[in-house]
Design a protein that fits this description.
Blueprint lengths: L1 H8 L7 E5 L4 H12 L3 E7 L11 H13 L5 E4 L2 H10 L7 E3 L20 E5 L8 H10 L4 E5 L5 H8 L5 E4 L3
Parallel strand pairs: 1-2, 2-3, 3-4, 5-6, 6-7
Length: 179
């Protein structure tokens, strides 16, 4: 109630803007509440995790699924970090294709020299699921441009063997599939 008075006081209800919220519980509930109070606003939700993770048992997952399903018609734009994630979500929920966008998490690399002259050998690491959605091919491409590096790969997944083949003979590689 006090937030509603504050919104009226600053006259945000007459502005056109996007509210960006996460999923599937508190941020989505807050986003929906604000959208109901701000007449000309649109609600965009950012889905960063796998929607299949909400399919497990328990009360918390049941509430997540119900809240998300109940909110779908109120959401103006669904933002996913990968095309695969969008397809999984559309298989599980009635999300209209025209309301979806894929926007990977940006990776910014400063201008990177291709060789270094450090006293110790520099290292480049990859930690996480070794999967196409995690930029494995891009990581291999960067590793192929660099000279004089050692590599650490900590993770497992469907592209692990490709990773091993591509880095074979490129320098010292340390592998850990137990993270």
């Amino acid at each position: 109630v006090s937030q509603s008075r504050y919104l009226r006081k600053v006259k945000l209800q007459d502005e056109n803007f996007y509210l960006v919220a996460g999923t599937p519980l508190q941020p989505l509930v807050i986003g929906r509440f604000l959208k109901s109070k701000l007449r000309n606003s649109k609600l965009q939700i950012s889905i960063h995790n796998d929607p299949r993770s909400w399919q497990g048992g328990g009360v918390k997952n049941l509430v997540k699924r119900a809240n998300f399903r109940f909110s779908i018609h109120k959401i103006d734009l669904f933002r996913f970090v990968s095309a695969n994630q969008r397809e999984v979500a559309k298989d599980l929920y009635p999300i209209p294709e025209k309301k979806t966008v894929v926007c990977p998490i940006p990776l910014e690399f400063p201008s990177t020299p291709t060789s270094y002259s450090y006293r110790s050998q520099p290292s480049l690491g990859f930690v996480g699921r070794v999967h196409s959605d995690r930029g494995v091919r891009e990581w291999i491409e960067i590793a192929n441009m660099l000279k004089g590096f050692s590599y650490l790969v900590a993770g497992d997944g469907p592209m692990l063997e490709l990773f091993r083949r591509e880095l074979k003979g490129k320098g010292r590689c340390t592998w850990s599939v137990q993270v």
